Amino acid sequence: MSHILLRHRDVKDIHKYRVYVANGGYDGLKKALAEYEPAEIKDIIRKSNIRGRGGAGFPAGIKWGFIPNTEGPKYVVVNADESEAGTFKDRELIDFNPHQVIEGALICAYAIGAQACYIYFRGEFMHTAENFERAIKDAYANKAIGRQIFGFDFDCHFYTHYGAGAYICGEETALLESLEGKLGQPRIRPPFPAQAGLYHKPTVVNNVETLANVPPVIMNGADWYLTMGTEQSSGPKIVCLSGHINRPGNYEVPMGISYRELIFGDEYGGGILDGKGLKAVLPSGGSAPVITEEALDAPLTFEGLADHGSLLGSASVIVMDETVDMVWAALKLIHFFHHESCGKCTPCREGTYWLERVLQRILDGRGQESDIKLLESIATQMQGETLCALGEFATSPVLSTIKHFPEDYRAKINGASSPIGRNEAKMAEVVVAAAEVKAG
Amino acid sequence: MLVEKYADEIQAILAKYPDKRSAVLPLMYLAQEGYGFMSHEAMRDVAGVLDLDPTEVLSLAGFYTLFYEEPVGKYVLEICNDLPCALRGADEFVEMACKKLGVEQGGTTEDGMFSVKTVMCLAACDKAPMLQVNLKYEENLDEAKFDALITRLREEAAEGQASYFGVEAMKTALKQG
């Protein structure tokens, strides 16, 4: 199968402008400018039902449609802050197929009437984005970016911006704050970025992979795109496979293949490392509940894991073999969320701190029976109470590992004998008391 | 110091944004390179260029992990030991690296050459164990490759080729634009 997104795997040196153009590159943008009004582009994207590839799955066409038809500055912001544990798909596109991302962003800019695109890279991409920086320069030199793009009455500039190490900046309003030179903390919504985004102007924020889907849709039409995947999840998806898997890496798959095929198929993951048994799979990095063997026949789609209490998310699939202690795994993930919590809202800031503390003492053999309830109590006090999804995400590794692997927790707690420290015990009482007050 | 040393880069950065406050993170990278770390002097310089209060730059330095508020080694080794990397031996790799260099996690070697930090996911989970050296990727590592990397970096440093914090790449990009 030839690739639609990871085209560099089929076409050598497609990161170079002339190679990209020789292989149909920028034809989508030219076609958009020559044949369609901006409103028609929005219609095509809406009809194709490209859903956001950053994790949320929000339809791109609807997002673009929220931009008001007013005069004045508007922006397209490309979210290249890829930082979810287990996710490394956008980096491959940035490094090896940059023009397709640029072209997608420019088509979006034309559709919504934006005069500038910013791409927000995580700071750690400073060296690796070299091809992307060169691609922008070459696109300018060939009139694909700048004034009068390809001779049409359309001006659009393209700028790169580097963050400096903060997972939360992948959240779109935190990203905009960061791009404005502030702390990367989510904004209270409404207003949404479509009304008041970058510099309070109407703004579309789309993920790298989402925008890479746009040029082929303009070239081939919405109906072509709808032939791939399922009714609610159309098109191709890049899946990141990591952990205890024989062939880790990115795989571009049609939506709808099963998790079993993805993990065990020879074309994809090729099975569990060292022939061990499977214990659990995180389908979306740290941000979605774990699934087990019984969920593997579910299709890889936005809706496919609903019955199993989980999500497609960014499709960063982390595979864990039978030897993994799920308390340890949950602690690793909670450590991440605690470290990355921006500190703006209390339930997330304090909740991630306490989840990490309690998990750590269970792992150290200092836990007690009531700690499992305590973890659940902290997590449920966070759910639905935070400004952005980070606080929500942080609860899922804890709650889902308790649900599926209570024996891992019990083994640690029953083996424990040393009493917990006095201050921790005191604080645990406070947290439980707070939960009781809330429960009324 | 910042203004004299990086006048061209500062102008190129400011030209990207309608609001100059957006230039604060790029200027902090430049200042960090100029001073070797994010010193208070560096923060005052950045604040001066952008008409910010220095405490605003201080709060950004505290929020974003790529700004080092204490002096660091010539090469900062940032090793990912998040879950996907840890499933493929990253915790053991960190231990090995620290032992070889004779430092604690977060510490700097006595000769000021290497700092070792553990960091959150670096988007290279399929190539674990991995690290970044001053933001350059080194992937699919093992003990032998780590030894070779350290030897290579010591040689580069002796020849005066050390590159700081990725700023070199940013400067190249600015020239291209």
Distinctive features:
heterodimer; A: 440 residues; alpha/beta; Rossmann fold; Ubiquitin-like (UB roll); de novo design (two linked rop proteins); 3 domains; four-stranded mixed β-sheet; 8 strands; 42% helix; B: 177 residues; alpha+beta; Arc Repressor Mutant, subunit A; Glutaredoxin; 2 domains; elongated
CATH homologous superfamily of the largest domain in chain A?
NADH-ubiquinone oxidoreductase 51kDa subunit
Q: What form of chain A results from the Cα inertia axes?
A: globular
Terminal residue distance of chain A: 58 Å
**Largest interface: chains, residues each:** A-B, 63 and 49 residues
CATH topology of the largest domain in chain B: Glutaredoxin
- What is the CATH class name of the largest domain in chain A? Alpha Beta
Rg of chain B, alpha carbons: 17 Å
The quaternary structure here is heterodimer
Distance between the termini of chain B: 25 Å
Question: How many structural domains are formed by the residues of chain B?
Answer: 2
Question: Can you characterise this structure?
Answer:
- The complex is a heterodimer of chains A (440) and B (177).
- Chain A is of the alpha/beta class.
- Chain A folds into 3 domains: 7-226, Rossmann fold, CATH 3.40.50; 236-321, Ubiquitin-like (UB roll), CATH 3.10.20; 326-439, de novo design (two linked rop proteins).
- Chain A has helices at 17-22, 27-35, 38-48, 60-65, 89-96, 98-112, 130-141, 172-179, 208-212, 214-220, 222-226, 259-264, 326-340, 346-363, 370-382, 389-404, 406-414, 422-439, and strands at 75-80, 116-121, 157-162, 203-207, 236-243, 249-254, 278-286, 316-321.
- In chain A, the strands form 2 sheets. Chain A has a 4-stranded parallel β-sheet with strand order 3-2-1-4, with helices on both faces. In chain A, strands 6-5-8-7 form a 4-stranded mixed β-sheet.
- With 177 residues, chain B is an alpha+beta fold.
- Chain B folds into 2 domains: 2-69 and 166-176, Arc Repressor Mutant, subunit A (Orthogonal Bundle), CATH 1.10.10.1590; 75-158, 3-Layer(aba) Sandwich (Glutaredoxin).
- Chain B contains 9 helices and 4 strands, in the order αααααβααβββαα.
- In chain B, helix 3 (24-35) packs antiparallel against helix 4 (40-50) and helix 4 crosses helix 5.
- Chains A and B meet through helix 7, strand 3, strand 5, strand 7 and strand 8 of A and helix 3, helix 5, helix 6 and helix 9 of B.
